[in-house]
């Protein structure tokens, strides 16, 4: 989780300035850095193996902000080769609940 956190609160509008000081150190330390890009309001956080787009704000009140991203960041310090990650097909449906489980199809 620390690889997904920065040491300072950044509002979405501040990511433009942050993108000018790449790479950005995460709370995981100096060998776990990310690059931030800001292009016409589209914010991306890049690690060697992932290019994550910030989709929106989950929580944004200082001193903490939580942003939704569209993929997991994978640090190069841990993943020396591209990990095998399969994409979820867009038409895939969630697994059905077990029979008898709360909200499941109990008979």
TrEMBL record:
<keyword id="KW-0336">GPI-anchor</keyword>
<keyword id="KW-0449">Lipoprotein</keyword>
<dbReference type="GO" id="GO:0005886">
    <property type="term" value="C:plasma membrane"/>
</dbReference>
<keyword id="KW-0472">Membrane</keyword>
<keyword id="KW-0325">Glycoprotein</keyword>
<dbReference type="InterPro" id="IPR045003">
    <property type="entry name" value="FLA_A"/>
</dbReference>
<comment type="similarity">
    <text>Belongs to the fasciclin-like AGP family.</text>
</comment>
<keyword id="KW-0732">Signal</keyword>
<feature type="domain" description="FAS1">
    <location>
        <begin position="2"/>
        <end position="75"/>
    </location>
</feature>
<keyword id="KW-1003">Cell membrane</keyword>
<dbReference type="InterPro" id="IPR000782">
    <property type="entry name" value="FAS1_domain"/>
</dbReference>
<protein>
    <recommendedName>
        <fullName>FAS1 domain-containing protein</fullName>
    </recommendedName>
</protein>
<dbReference type="GO" id="GO:0098552">
    <property type="term" value="C:side of membrane"/>
</dbReference>
<comment type="function">
    <text>May be a cell surface adhesion protein.</text>
</comment>
<dbReference type="Pfam" id="PF02469">
    <property type="entry name" value="Fasciclin"/>
</dbReference>
<feature type="region of interest" description="Disordered">
    <location>
        <begin position="83"/>
        <end position="107"/>
    </location>
</feature>
<dbReference type="InterPro" id="IPR036378">
    <property type="entry name" value="FAS1_dom_sf"/>
</dbReference>
<dbReference type="GO" id="GO:0009834">
    <property type="term" value="P:plant-type secondary cell wall biogenesis"/>
</dbReference>
């Amino acid at each position: 989780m620390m690889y997904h956190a920065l040491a300072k609160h950044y509002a979405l509008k501040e990511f433009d300035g942050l993108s000018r000081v790449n790479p950005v150190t995460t709370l995981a330390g100096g060998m776990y850095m990310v690059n931030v890009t800001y292009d016409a309001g589209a914010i991306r956080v890049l690690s060697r193996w992932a290019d994550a787009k910030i989709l929106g704000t989950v929580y944004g009140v200082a001193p903490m902000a939580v942003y939704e991203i569209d993929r997991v960041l994978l640090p190069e310090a841990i993943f020396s080769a591209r990990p095998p990650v399969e994409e979820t097909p867009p038409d895939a449906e969630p697994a059905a609940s077990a029979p008898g489980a709360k909200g499941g199809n109990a008979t």
